[in-house]
Write a structure and sequence with these properties.
Elements: H1 2-15, E1 26-30, H2 37-47, E2 55-59, H3 61-64, H4 70-84, E3 88-91, H5 99-107, E4 114-117, H6 122-132, H7 134-143, E5 147-151, H8 153-158, H9 164-168, H10 186-189, E6 199-201, H11 211-221, E7 228-230, E8 236-240, E9 243-247
Parallel strand pairs: 1-5, 2-3, 2-4, 4-5, 6-7
Antiparallel strand pairs: 1-8, 8-9
Pfam families: Peptidase_S51
Family: Belongs to the peptidase S51 family.
Keywords: Hydrolase, Protease, Serine protease, Signal
Length: 248
């Protein structure tokens, strides 16, 4: 975002012409999904009027590589439809739908209003978004006004680095033996970075919520150079254009 602004300023200074400002983005990042009334209310606000006309791309890649079943995914989708009045929720798994097929599947939704990145294995989600070309589709959708909703892994992947998963080290870095990535390499570990340069650390509960433990992990893994938003279960963080604030 800053580089785009700097480039715009240089164009104006050198040519005197105007240039468009970078697009604003909207995100609702959570630790454990929409688990509180405050988070549900914030989702409804960001979703806007006539939810029955909104199109949702639900990404199940993380839970399906973290011991969860398609039945669990389908229950979650059913809940989203019934509780929020969403009629069009399409499950598209970027582990299996890639390249042109992925572009066609997303295009078939028509307007893309919400991207829902579910909880589960952070590394599986990050790898397959990149490998499938999903990265660019997500960025394009956000720049066009879509809302990104992340839960746990989905929130981590939205940030600057997915090495936030190193802190607790819960996730299988091979995604059940299906991927081989050097996650210590900052380039491979780079997230979508749509959170204003921040990283996101979910499940900051109990010992993981203590600032002394968090500071030690940040120092250990080299994450003291940028802001890390810590989210306990039931908490969220919203980015809405030029506004950024916690939801509790």
């Amino acid at each position: 975002m800053r580089s785009a602004v700097a480039a715009c300023i240089l164009v104006v200074l050198s040519s005197g012409s105007s240039c468009p400002m970078p697009p604003t983005r909207r995100l609702l990042l959570t630790s454990d999904g929409l688990s509180t009334k405050a988070l549900k209310d914030e989702f409804r606000r960001l979703l806007g009027d006539r939810p029955e006309n909104k199109n949702v791309w639900y990404i199940p890649t993380a839970p399906l590589r973290d011991g969860m079943s398609m039945a669990m995914v389908e229950r979650q989708v059913t809940m989203l439809k019934s509780e929020f009045g969403l009629r069009h929720v399409e499950i598209i798994d970027v582990e299996y739908v890639k390249g042109e097929k992925l572009r066609d599947a997303v295009k078939a939704l028509g307007s893309l209003d919400v991207i829902w990145a579910e909880m589960g294995n952070t590394y599986a989600l990050r790898h397959h978004l990149r490998d499938s070309g999903g990265d660019q589709l997500v960025l394009d959708a956000l720049d066009a006004g879509a809302l990104y909703v992340g839960s746990s892994a989905g929130s981590i992947v939205a940030g600057r680095t997915v090495q936030m998963a190193f802190w607790k080290d819960w996730d299988d870095k091979t995604a059940e033996g299906t991927i081989d990535v050097d996650w210590k390499d900052p380039k491979h570990a780079q997230g979508l970075d749509v959170g204003g340069g921040r990283s996101f650390f979910p499940h900051a509960n109990g010992q993981f919520g203590r600032s002394s433990w968090q500071d030690a992990q940040a120092k250990k893994h080299g994450h003291t150079d940028h802001e890390v938003v810590k989210l306990a279960d039931g908490q969220g963080f919203v980015i809405d254009g030029d506004k950024a604030y916690p939801v509790e």
